[in-house]
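Handout, page 2. Input:
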Amino acid sequence: GSNPDAGEAPIGAGATLLGLARSRGLWHWTLSILAGLALGMTLGTVAWLALGAEVTRPPEHVVVTIPSDTAQRIAAGAPAPVIPADLQLVEGDTLVLQNADAFAHRIGGYTLAPGATLRIPVEAADGGTFACTFHASGSIALDVRPRNEPSGVVAAGLLLGLPLGLVLGGVSWVVRKLDDPGVTASSPEAERVDPRSF
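Output:
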């Protein structure tokens, strides 16, 4: 008698080989995407550390005190007290102006009475150059930087990593096909002839 299982062996073997090929292809793209994500996260972290890591600090109160003789010194042409002409601020900070002078002072649209304290919440759109009376130049610049959160690194890693992973996978797939020794001049694929040529 014939063995009923004898004819099924090639089918089972072919299915196994097909499954292996599919699993290898799945692993290939999975590893490529993971490599792309790792590269994207690395590039995002490097850029974050180089350009904006210091902007992740908690909001601060930036205090500027106007000394008691500021108005008199400016009126007399004497060197003005040391008050920064360019304040570096971060979105979410609070600019605290304390007027210790005997005269009122102005900054932008605010007037600060003698002995008064003014608190200005800082938003990203508040940067610019403003008129002020406690500088001999008559102006002060506020450089407001947007706050960078670490979650931005994750978003940048995903945005960079997925395309990079697909590119890496495509390039490695092409290289593997070019280096595949199974397709040679004597292989059936290479000997296949288009019947329309006759």
